[in-house]
Design a protein that fits this description.
alpha/beta, eight-stranded parallel barrel, 15 strands, five-stranded antiparallel beta sheet, 402 residues
Length: 402
């Protein structure tokens, strides 16, 4: 979906296909037919943007077989689908029964992360629509904090510098620019947008920036305006933004609230949980740990911690809840944070980013009674999320294009 900003810029809105995980190219093609096209039809659009997730095996096939890449582009065109952005954060196994910490491997100290991301950039230049010359890729925010050392930091810095050089060469070769954004996430080396400034200014390249995920932003209790203004002041580009909402519990000490939260503590994904105290943020690596008081995993660089997570202030959990369907009371979502971030991103005189992506990959991890029953219900839900995002953009003065 495309929108015209009042300044004349085209802003793209897509949804991320990691909600339909597939490890192979055949699986990706099946996604287009079974999920993406039905979502497009529900929205009544001739064209729908999708943010492809290409697992390692699918990416290798596309990067080494030009005929396979051409065939994928034909499938996209045939289905009325377009790609301007890729999700390069998960490497493989995102559809596994248990993902948890595995999603942070390989990190940016591992040469394979650089090779994978470079391959995604090459693939994207061939998938971009004919009238689009700029693409984006979101990626891991360096690595998980407990496995990230000084040696890792030096290796990661070298890898990002090499990536920038490769992106420059790719642009010169193809005439198409691909930018890559580190996606700050709770518990990672780059947990917040503020954490991203130092490593990215060290790289100092306009093709390497930040992907602002509004669920992660909210979970870390970042103020959207302050965070985005700080990035702008440091001249760190917002390569893309993922529109998502976190789980919010206003009174986590109450028994009924803890019972409601427990329904979201599931075994597949990591649901980092945070609260804000007078001395700073505190948190756990997973929602179940917060509920059971098994111990606190402080964010990077010694932010205040303790043996348990205080329950006298609101909690937020890294659980991407559907944008249009906040959990029932006593829980809610951080949709207001998304709205505030979106207003700052595209509501001003000039957009801070041109690529927006709805990323609710946790539909099948919701409590059983909230999970969609079958493909049709999932397509209904994704279309409803995109419709909400479309309406938010319209309210900010953007005009939907055919």
């Amino acid at each position: 979906m495309r929108f015209r900003h009042p300044d004349g810029t085209t802003v793209h809105l897509a949804y991320c296909t990691n909600v339909h995980p597939a490890e192979t190219l055949d699986g990706v093609v099946a996604q287009l037919r079974d999920h993406c096209v039905p979502v497009r039809r529900r929205l009544g659009r001739d064209r729908l943007g999708i943010g492809l997730w290409l697992a390692r095996d699918a990416a290798r096939t596309l990067d080494t077989d030009p005929s396979a890449l051409r065939a994928l582009r034909r499938e996209l065109d045939r289905g009325g689908l377009e790609v301007v952005t890729l999700n390069g954060f998960p490497y493989e196994g995102f559809g596994a029964a248990e993902v948890k910490y595995r999603v942070y491997k390989p990190d940016w100290a591992d040469p394979e992360r650089l090779e994978y991301t470079t391959a995604l950039a090459r693939i994207l230049t061939a998938l971009l629509p004919d009238d689009v010359t700029e693409g984006s890729v979101s990626t891991l925010p360096l690595g998980w904090r407990t496995t990230w050392s000084a040696d890792h930091a030096r290796a990661g810095q070298r890898a990002l510098t090499t990536l920038a050089e490769r992106l420059d060469a790719l642009a010169e070769l193809t005439g198409r620019s691909v930018r890559v954004g580190l996606e700050p996430e709770p518990g990672c080396t780059v947990e917040t947008t503020g954490d991203a400034i130092a490593p990215l200014t060290a790289v100092g390249h306009p093709r390497i920036g930040v992907c602002v995920d509004t669920c992660h932003l909210a979970t870390s209790f970042e103020d959207p305006a302050e965070a985005l203004d700080a990035l702008a002041a440091a001249r760190v580009p917002v390569v893309k933004s993922q529109l998502s909402a976190a789980l919010h519990a206003e009174h986590p000490g109450r028994p009924e609230v803890r019972e409601a939260l427990a329904a979201f503590a599931e075994p597949r994904f990591l649901h980092q949980t945070r609260t804000l105290t007078a001395t700073g943020p505190r948190g756990t690596d997973d929602l179940g740990e917060a509920l059971s008081g098994l111990g606190e995993a402080p964010p990077p660089r010694g932010r205040p911690g303790g043996s348990t997570l205080p329950a006298d202030a609101p909690w937020r959990a890294h659980f991407h809840v559907p944008l249009h369907a906040a959990p029932a009371p006593p829980l809610t979502s951080t949709l207001p944070v998304l709205r505030a971030a979106l207003a700052r991103l595209v509501g001003g005189p000039r957009p801070l980013t041109r690529h927006l992506e709805v990323e609710t990959y946790t539909w099948q991890a919701l409590p059983p009674e909230l999970r969609p029953r079958g493909r049709d219900r999932l397509a209904d839900g994704i279309a409803a999320e995109l419709a909400l995002a479309r309406d938010e953009l319209a309210d900010l003065g953007l005009k939907e294009l055919p």
